[in-house]
Write a structure and sequence with these properties.
By secondary structure, this protein is α+β, with helices and mostly antiparallel strands. It is built from 4 helices and 7 strands. It has a 7-stranded mixed β-sheet, sandwiched between helices.
Length: 174
């Protein structure tokens, strides 16, 4: 049975391994190893997330193994007065992909945010990944036409100038 729950400090070592496998490992359709090298996250970043009251880090666990995770960070209001949150560190272990776990994680985060009155969920998606853009679009995210520079170490990019496209999901009915 798969359990969805908030992450705990004791999960950090497994989370580091899970995220690295999903983002930088070989195998699985979410890998970025052909575009980005290096470490995707580390224990310090995860401990900081767990200590931040604006962050909710959820994990999917099955028989003691972490199979997926994602966080949301509440950002407050934008210039139009809409309450916003960012989705990130969204990973499903390559061995557990294509089981609907990513959709389950996304739905759980969205439901939590809706309950708090958050109006917009934003994600930054690595450019040159049309399959990821399409996955998010199938779940209601809309491209904004805006992009930002790659947030990690520029030296880790295997493609010069690669950035992040911003997509948004409306969480509240207009």
């Amino acid at each position: 049975m798969t359990t969805l729950r908030p992450a705990h400090e004791a999960d950090v070592p497994q989370l580091v391994d899970l995220v690295q496998a999903a983002y930088r490992g070989s195998g699985g359709w979410t890998t970025e190893e052909h575009l980005v090298t290096g470490t995707r996250t580390d224990a310090g970043e995860l401990h900081a997330m767990l200590a931040d009251p604006a962050v909710t880090l959820l994990v999917l666990e099955e028989d003691g193994a972490l199979l997926g995770c994602c966080y949301t960070r509440r950002d407050g209001e934008d210039e139009a007065g809409r309450t916003r949150a960012e989705l990130g560190l969204f990973a499903v272990h390559p061995s557990a992909q294509s089981r609907g776990l990513g959709a389950r994680l996304l739905d759980a985060q969205a439901e939590l945010l809706r309950g708090e009155g958050i109006e917009v969920l934003m994600i930054q998606v690595l450019q040159a990944r049309p399959e990821l853009h399409a996955w998010y679009e199938r779940r209601g995210f809309v491209p904004t036409g805006r992009s930002v520079p790659f947030a990690g170490r520029i030296d880790d990019l295997r493609v010069d100038g690669l950035g992040m496209d911003i997509m948004e999901l409306a969480l509240q009915s207009a």
